[in-house]
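pasting for ref
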Amino acid sequence: MAGSQQELLIMAFLVAVAIVLHMLACLVVGDNMYPLIVMFMYLFWPLPFFLCGKKQESFLDSDNGGFHTFGAFIIGMFGASGPCLTGVLLHTGSITVGAGVLSLIGGVVVGAAVRYYSKLQAEDDAGF
């Protein structure tokens, strides 16, 4: 039980760090709230993973069905939307370079939390 509490604490810490980085990008560096849009994209990123279940073992595995494949597509869409939206905001001059860098670092931290959770799920599935 102590291991699962520690893992949950690590994931909560990673998400909290990502939120703080995005708040810093909004208030300190950028002086506007556009990086919050990027933060919401990153926070919606793991939602299809939770709703659609575990990932497929292989591309040709037909036991998982279309629901899991659709979930993987939505995960990719949210995962690519965060950095791309940051690039668009930087290109249009809506946010500063410092705010864009903080936003991208926050996205990497959220990605680390999602990857850590998927690694834990793979370990749980291997244990049975």
